[in-house]
Specification:
The chain is of the alpha/beta class. The chain contains six helices and seven strands, in the order αβαβαβαβαβαββ. About 35% of the residues lie in helices and about 25% in strands. The protein has a seven-stranded mixed sheet, sandwiched between helices. Strand 4, helix 5 and strand 5 form a beta-alpha-beta unit. The protein starts with 5 loop residues before the first helix and ends with a strand.
C-alpha cells in the first residue's frame, strides 16, 4: 500500500461528493488542473465556476478543459476568490482551493489570509449538505506558512455538530511540505 499525496487525497474526497449534473467551484484556477477534474465529475449537465486574479490562469484553465474535450458549463471569473458569494448563487457540492502562487508565473502574486478566510466562509455557506471543501496549503513559500496556520486555526473552529474537518499530509517530509485541509458539511 502507498499513501496518496495530499493533492490526490483531495481529489478522492471531492470525487465522493460531486454528482454528475452538479455544481462545483475551483476557487483558485491556476493552470486549470482542478477545473478539468471538476468538469469531468459534473459532466455535460453540470457547471464549474472558477476564480483567479490572473488573466493567464483564466485562459489556461479554459484551454485545458477545451483541449480535453470535456463538456460542461464553465463560468470562469478574473477576480479573487473572496468574491465567490457575489458570483455563485446556487448550492454547490464541492469547492477546491489550491493556495499559494500560480506555477511558472509571478511568485509575488499569492493567495493571502485576507482573501482566503472570507472565501472559505462563503464556500461553507454555499455548500449543500454532504458537500466538501478541499484546501491545499503550501507553507513552504514566503507568506504560505502564515496562511496555512490561519486556515488550520479557522477550520479547527468550525462547530463539530455541523462539520467534519481533517488535515492530511506527510509530516516527515522536508521543507514545510504541503498539506490538505478537507471540510465536510454535515447539516443544511
Amino acid at each position: 500500500m502507498s499513501f496518496p499525496k495530499p493533492l490526490m487525497m483531495a481529489q478522492q474526497i471531492v470525487r465522493g461528493a460531486v454528482r454528475e449534473g452538479g455544481v462545483a467551484v475551483d476557487a483558485t484556477l491556476g493552470n486549470g488542473h482542478d477545473a478539468l477534474f471538476l468538469a469531468k465529475l459534473v459532466g455535460k449537465e453540470g457547471k464549474v465556476y472558477g476564480f483567479d486574479v490572473q488573466e493567464e490562469a483564466i485562459t489556461a484553465s479554459n484551454l485545458k478543459v477545451q483541449e480535453a474535450g470535456v463538456e460542461c458549463e464553465l463560468s470562469f471569473h478574473c477576480r479573487g476568490h473572496e468574491h465567490l458569494a457575489e458570483t455563485v448563487q446556487e448550492p454547490v457540492q464541492a469547492v477546491m482551493f489550491n493556495l499559494g502562487y500560480l506555477p511558472r508565473a509571478d511568485k509575488a502574486v499569492i493567495t493571502t489570509v485576507e482573501t482566503t478566510l472570507p472565501a472559505l466562509g462563503q464556500a461553507c455557506d454555499l455548500l449543500e449538505k454532504g458537500g466538501v471543501i478541499s484546501v491545499m496549503c503550501y507553507p513552504g513559500h514566503e507568506g504560505g506558512d502564515v496562511e496555512a496556520q490561519d486556515v488550520l486555526k479557522w477550520a479547527s473552529s468550525l462547530p463539530r455538530e455541523g462539520w467534519r474537518v481533517i488535515q492530511y499530509g506527510f509530516i516527515n517530509a522536508p521543507n514545510n511540505p504541503p498539506f490538505l485541509v478537507a471540510i465536510e458539511k454535515l447539516s443544511a
